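Fold this complex.
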Amino acid sequence: MGAVLSLDGLLDTRRVWKGRPVVEDHGLQPTGHAALDAVLPGGGWPAAALSELLLAEEGAGELQLLWPSLARLSSAGERVVLVAPPFIPYPPAWQAAGVDLRWLSVIEADSQQSLWAAEQCLRSGSCAAVLCWPQRADDRALRRLQVAAETGQALAFACRDHSAALNPSPAALRIAIDTRPAQWRVLKCRGGLAPSRPVSASGHAG
Amino acid sequence: MLWACILLPQLALDSVLRGRDDADQPLVLLTGPTNRRVLQAVNPAARALGLRAGQSLTTAQALAQGFATVEHDPAATERQQQLLAAWAYRFSSQVSLHYPRALLLEVQSSLGLFGPWPKFEARLRAELQALGFSHRIVLASNPVAARMLANAHDGLAASDEQSTRAALAAMPIDRLGLPVEAATAFKRMGLRQLDQVLALPRQTLARRFAAEVQLHLDRLLGLRAMALDCYLPPDRFEARLELNFDVESNQALLFPLRRMIDDLAAFLAGRDAGVQRFSLFLEHAEGADSLLQIGLLAAERDAGRLLELARGRLEQLSLRAAVRNLRLVAEELPAFVPLAGELFSARAQQQQGWEQLRERLRARLGDEAVRSVGVVADHRPECAWRSAEVAAASVACPAPRPGWLLEQPRALPLEGLRLLAGPERIESGWWDGGDVRRDYYLVETIAGQRGWAYRQLGEPRDGPLWLQGWFA
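Structure:
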């Protein structure tokens, strides 16, 4: 007989995972793409959680996916932050996509500091969406982002390379973005089974 | 005015019990000199063993064994009563500790906020239950009547003078707080209830009994007012909990800590204040106390959050010796500003404002680190944007433009490249030295990315394309 442990004690110290965590309703966060919303369990981005976008190549279509959400948030007067983007956001295109530039902030930081900055932004609760491009993010770093997103009830987006798809990740949603054909594959979504069929990337003719 | 009396029949026992997590173990409070120890109070488990208040300790030990004994500490009981007054101050501006083991609250003026009375009473009971105090609550039209009715009733609500008088009339004469000799005299005269006494002519009563008897009866009926000194809450919070045994592990400190933080939250709610920083002293048997400072970004008073924070700090602390007592001190109690929640937006309002966050980021990353993006009305892509402290107005753009711009254009090999659109000529800037004459193409790479590339005017048609942006 092993030592008798009190169940309450174990739960209190958070050493036991209770399965099916209570999903808090933070409101709907539609992606702006009807076909994608239809397959996602929450009808959109997982609110107050980390979403991972896995890109086949640099500049492979993450903005097409994100712009409708960013436009919706920024025009509602909520702040969108880009933490250490790999390129310069070209304002005419962002404006044409409907993003209100007054609510768009860019933070310049090196790769070490960028995770810290992203976590601060997420945790503060004053940003609605935070985009970051973690380069050598390990499981621990992503988990920190996920917890920060829960605390600050913000949408966190981490754009990473396709090769990271093989590693497990604490993100609530993982979408791989393919270029040929242009499609989005949902690899993991919390609260439901990942749909087996890819979603065609609308508006990306080619 | 309406007065509620909250009688705490076993305040001393409750104040000991709420500091312990083994409430169902037999426990007795001891009092009296060393040669004659007497049981002051017993809890239900001890009563089940046959122990009664008033027994001597030797009798108790002869009757049963295995009960815990705690020395009765009047000062600790007094502190608990002060805490309860601070708690009650939340519900009424007139709280009096005139009677021992009882709280008097003026509630008529609070009914608009917390009422009606049944609801108010239920809330008082629920909170007292959560704080761990057994209680009796009575409502009457004057404080003395409320206190005396609480001797015989629980849950009585006499909301006007007639019903108060009617309730008093049926009270036994010895439960009315009259001087003992007067109560005995009334009983010997065959007067068992108050209405029999009130039926007597006033002059004869005044002739036979001391003046204070008549005064007390008048106050009881509300004919004469009584001056009550009201409770004034202190400006700081300090609580101390004696653990009575040495605690070696952090986990075991959590239960008493939760109690103290609940008390702090009740106190803060009464003062309508929050706490931004508080200190937890862990007192050891010898040596200096260990100090745990807990600071928050904003004033907070929710017990759950405060406990979560304190617990986070406590778990990191390695105890250098066993802990004997806990002390919690909060000096600064700033006004509490609740988070403004919106009805339809479920996203919590900002816990830390953007300005504050920006300062934090700038402090670590440099002054230039946080920027907005501005638009400049220029056809040259590299000139059409600038980073700015504040973003500027919009510029319409005719043709599709890429979302990402490369800092430096880079050569793009022509193999596998597909030209989707173009050329679009951009020729500008001859006046400021940054002369640009380019043909722009929308291209697709072999991997399927779509880019925005140009060729300098005058370069050969099979010359390299320069990639300037991605249509991501």
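Residues 394-470 of chain B form one domain.
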